[in-house]
Each structure stands twice: as structure tokens, then as C-alpha cells.
Amino acid sequence: MHKIAQPPPKAQNKQLVIAKIVVVALYGVGAVGLSIPEYREYFLLLTPAQLLLSLALLLGFHRGWNEAFPIFATAAFWLGFGAELIGIHTGYIFGDYVYGETLGPKLWEVPIVIGVNWFILVYLTGSVFYKVTDNDLYAAFLGAAAMTALDYIMEPVAVALDFWYWKFDIIPAENYLTWFAVAFLIHYIFRKGNFEKSNPLAAFMLVAMTLFFTVLNFTLEL
């Protein structure tokens, strides 16, 4: 398989700086816009586009384009989406919840971008932690723990912004336990995948995303 030609180092650095500026705009401006009630409705409409643009930016800096990577990406999408699908229609796995309209078009009552979100979160945390240890199980544990911590920060914001709603407005403990379990499985597949796992934009985007939801926890009426 032919390798994709890489731009010179200076060009790569310039592209990375531009990408980071775009990430700051995506999450910084987004956090401000969603915090202002008069503009919130307009920024909510952009939520699926924000996720898709984040995906495009990450893939633009991905270095492991071989046959194994799309297999992992597909598995991450469908395992995450499938878990949500079962959860929505049975009330098991994560708990009893339903999706709102903010996340865009749905397939079987689950927003399509949810699968994208699972891939992005695993890819981000997996790329950040992949050098921490050579032990795949420990690395999967760390990645899943990071995702669960982010979900804890994200949940109140998601409810406030019409991402999804919990029965009786109570987030059950099983949500975090099962989120961890599903994340662990996908992270383990990530570790076993035979593709390059470093991405120079991953850590920056993960921090931006974490700050985005942290700020909204304080600026929204939760």
C-alpha cells in the first residue's frame, strides 16, 4: 500500500497551528454562544456540524492510514451507536433516557452523530494515553476512565442543551459503569489495531472539549 505523502515539517507546523486556532474557535466561541440565552438556539443548531468538523480535523492529522484504521473506526462507531440503540429501546445498559433534537438526524431514534462522538472520544483519549504503558489492558482502563470522567462533566450540560433526557431527571450510576465498560472494549480494540496511534492535535482537542463542558457547567442554568 502506498504511503500518503507528508508535507514538509514547517508546513505541518503551520497546519497544526491553524487547526488549533479552529479548535479554539469551535469550542471557545461555542461555549460563549451557548452561555448567552439570546444566541443559544442558533449555536445549538451547529452542534452536529461542530462534531463533524472536529472529526475532519482529527482525521486530517491522522498518520496511520492503512487497512486497519477504517476497521477500527467502523467498529468504534457501531459499538458505540449499538450500545446507545439498545439503551434507548430497552432502558438497560445506560439507564432510561431519550434523545432530544439538538444532535440532529436520527436512525432508529438515536442521533447518527452519536456514533461519531464515540469514535472521537475513544480516538482522543486513546491517542493521549497510548504511550503511557505497553500494557493494553491498563491503557484501555486509563482511556475508559478518562472518558467516564468527561461523561460526568458532560451529562448536566447535555440535559440542559436538549442532547438527551433522563427519566425522573436522575442520572443513574449504571450510566457511568456501562459507559466505562463500552469505552473499555472500544479502547482495547484501539490498542490492538495495527495503525499509528499518535495524533498531534488529539491532546489539544481533548483539553478544549473538556474545558468546553466545564465552562458550560458554570454558565448554564443546570
UniProtKB/TrEMBL annotation:
Keywords: Membrane, Transmembrane, Transmembrane helix. The keyword Membrane applies. Signal peptide: none annotated. The chain crosses the membrane at residues 16-36, 42-61, 68-92, 112-130, 137-153, 173-190, 202-220. InterPro entries: CruF-like. Pfam families: Caroten_synth (PF04240). This is Carotenoid biosynthesis protein. It comes from Algoriphagus halophytocola. The lineage of its organism: Bacteria, Pseudomonadati, Bacteroidota, Cytophagia, Cytophagales.
